[in-house]
What we know:
disordered C terminus
Amino acid sequence: MLIEKSPQPAFQQNKQPGSIWFRILANLTFWVLIAIIAGVVLGSYAPATAVKMEIIGKTFIDIIKLFIAPIIFLTIVLGISGMGDLKKVGRIGLKSLLYFEIVSTFSLAIGILMAVLLKPGNIDKSKLQIGDASKYTSGPAKDFDWVHFFMNNMTIQVLVVAIIVGVILNYSRHREKAVRGLGRLSKIVFLGLKYVMYLAPLGAFGGMAYTVGKFGLHTLVPLAKLMGTVYLTMGIFIFLVLGGIMKYYQMSIWKFIKYIKEELLLVLGTSSSESALPSIMQKLEKMGCSKSVVGLVIPTGYSFNLDGTSIYLSMSVIFLAQLYGVELSALEMLSIIGILMITSKGAAGVTGSGFIVLASTLAALHKIPIEGLAFLLGVDKFMSEARALTNIIGNGVATIVIAKSEKEFNPVIESGEEQAAEAIENSVPLIAN
């Protein structure tokens, strides 16, 4: 079996003896889930105190962000220098961008289709809570600027620098020595990340407590139809679209989701897919994707493959059109997809950028009042979890697809190996030793 060929598979390193209660209490996933529940309870019954917990969630994410740049840099440099074939590196990059554009466009289309069918905006807007959207609606709408996008996107900057360094290192006579040194440094960085991830329950608690305390669960009631439509659409996209893609490559979306459940819970608690970026990269490597594919696809995907964000943006435009009774023609809906294909790429990594993208899109249409964004402010935070979860699953699937298509997928754990899946379930940390 493939598992026996590995000298020390990830799941064997963390397998814990003892009773089922010991394994549950020693599992970090359990404590993240408890933290999320505690955050919801605190936010519901003591909102003033819960809002103060924001600092805990923000601090955890800020610490995680410190690891993102070195992990992306080291993974890509080691992957490219280890691959040797620079033509293959270029092919992987182009194939990734093509895949991202196709799937992202499909997600925009399915968002519009579901909004048209379910009509979440057919409600009485006089009963909706109005937020202050002036910072997104004031001033002229700006066109998408690739230079601005690059200068404000650290992930893309690190990606470009790492590719350049990896290519240079490939031709250097000191390549082997440099790779050994970077390899040792990579182990140190991941070891540090492993211990930081034990703080994940605190981060999840702080993020969830602040969200519920600040915005309140009561804000969900007037826009429950929109919330339900968004979550339903993202569920359909994950299990039918991404699930179909995985099935084509003879893999199960259910088993993949089960494999990354720790990262998904962390994203759910913090409302940020960035909080799980370093650990999802390592999980995909341990799953069997090559270091070079993971290093190229995941960082690029976090800027160009935001499936959840694309669905939310397209649905929001149609929602606001329905809210104001604006009829959109088929050509105008195609225009929305075309505009969002470009502007949605700027919605990565910057808080509030989604509203800026929406404002630009509405301004370009000249039919839907931009002030309508005020109706979305109260409930947006509760939908950010759906966006982030869909984004991280989408990027994980993209990595597997590219790795499989490039024959860069060497699984330690086969989908049929129930014993391995069980052992992963019982692993203690989010990051394996």
